[in-house]
Design brief:
The chain has helices spanning about 5-25, 30-40, 40-55, 70-85, 85-105. It is mainly α.
């Protein structure tokens, strides 16, 4: 199987799973406990992605191998997350900072 076919199939399966939750969510009543648990999953996923990008498997922070723009963007995103408690605001602040610093630094 070629890489293009594999990526296309993986994307289709991922999209299908996400779409099924959106479509079923309108018809299925989710228990209150499950809704509370799912509300905490978005920040946890975001933290795990950022943490994995900035650390080694042993847990050491990649101060010297991580581009400085990533570290600055991570600090800005962490500050916004702490202040606003909003995943969209955190994402916009972090990615916006990263993109602006990347444009400025070339």
């Amino acid at each position: 199987m070629s890489a293009l076919v594999a990526f296309t199939l993986a994307g289709a399966v991922t999209w299908g799973l996400r779409a099924s939750f959106v479509l079923a969510g309108q018809r299925v009543n989710i228990p209150v406990r499950a809704e509370r648990a799912l509300a905490d999953s978005r920040p946890a996923i975001l933290a795990s992605l950022v943490g994995a990008a900035l650390t080694t498997p042993s847990g050491a922070i990649l101060w010297f191998s991580t581009p400085p723009t990533w570290l600055v963007a991570a600090v800005v995103a962490a500050a916004v997350a702490h202040r606003t408690r909003s995943v969209p605001a955190t994402s916009v602040a972090g990615m916006g900072t990263l993109w602006m610093l990347t444009l400025v630094s070339g």
